[in-house]
From TrEMBL:
InterPro entries: DegV (IPR003797), DegV_C (IPR043168), DegV_domain_contain (IPR050270). GO terms for molecular function: lipid binding. SUPFAM superfamilies: DAK1/DegV-like. It comes from the Bacteria. Keywords: Lipid-binding. This is DegV family protein. Pfam families: DegV.
């Protein structure tokens, strides 16, 4: 029986420590700063993206990995004849999942199983860690995929953005919407529904107070969450804000783990700095 290898793309926003602890291999997406195409998390950092974006008045373009990169990424595991379970960013947002399928075709490899996370950031990460834990416990590939099918649509991902400037630059909202929101100091909550980003609530005020209001309004939903873990994922928020959110979630005494991660280059490119989200699996 083949061993199982969990693979993912760089939009999963897991920390280096989690990636190493769960033995996950990450395929970076591409980020283009003008003519320079760089690998997310390998050749470019979010802070460098913000600097470039503010200096040039535009948001970097993001793209799926090349088929060549995907082939090279898979080869070591193909040679070991492992079952490969790949968790990719929502297919409604990116061609990454399909690139992996095409790479497997090029390699003539039948043991690749592509999971459309229908999500982004640690909404993917939650699914990855669950699958990795099951693999460690000796579950089969089929059992892991069945479990994911059961919980895939129960993953809850949302975040509050500080400014719509980056979403506007990336073509995710109109200039008028961004101008009005920024002028009125509106901070929209973005939620992932059916693999796509949608605007839910709109908050007003400074980002610190908005974030705490957003988190507290999640309490009822959090009480009905899977207790394994909850993610606080941010794109460069002040430490005191992150600490307040973490303390609040700890004090609810619901989750075994409250994990803080920083969003990678792709997510940061679209959301901009001072974005923070709470991500978990609902029961």
């Amino acid at each position: 029986m083949s061993s199982i290898k969990i693979l993912a793309d760089s939009t999963c926003d897991l920390t280096k420590e989690l990636i190493e602890a769960y033995d996950i291999s990450i395929l970076p997406l591409m980020i283009s700063l003008g003519a320079n195409s760089l690998k997310d998390g390998v050749e470019i950092t979010p802070d460098e993206i913000y600097q470039w974006s503010n200096a040039n008045g535009e948001t970097p373009k993001t793209a799926a990995p090349t088929i060549g990169d995907a082939v090279d990424f898979m080869k070591p595991f193909v040679e070991k004849e492992m079952d490969l379970i790949f968790f990719g960013i929502s297919e409604a947002m990116s061609a990454t999942c399909n690139v992996l399928r095409l790479a497997a075709e090029e390699l003539g490899y039948k043991q690749l199983y592509v999971v459309d996370s229908k999500n982004l950031s640690t909404g993917i990460g939650l699914q990855i860690l669950r699958a990795a834990e099951l693999a460690t416990k000796g579950y089969s590939t089929e059992e892991i995929l069945t479990d994911n099918h059961r919980i895939n649509e129960k993953v809850r991902s949302s975040f509050v953005v500080d400014t719509l400037t980056f979403l506007y630059r990336g073509g995710r909202c109109s200039g008028i919407t961004a101008l009005l929101a920024n002028t009125l100091k509106l901070k929209p909550e973005i939620v992932v529904i059916n693999g796509k980003m949608e605007v839910a609530k709109k908050y007003r005020g400074n980002q610190k107070s908005v974030i705490m209001k957003y988190v507290k309004e999640k309490e009822k939903e959090l009480m009905d969450a899977d207790t394994s873990r909850v993610f606080i994922t941010h794109s460069g928020c002040p430490e005191d804000v992150i600490k307040d959110v973490k303390d609040y979630l700890h004090n609810l005494q619901i989750f075994k783990e409250v994990i803080v991660t920083r969003a990678g280059g792709v997510i940061s490119s679209h959301c901009g700095p001072n974005t923070l989200g709470i991500l978990y699996i609902s029961n």
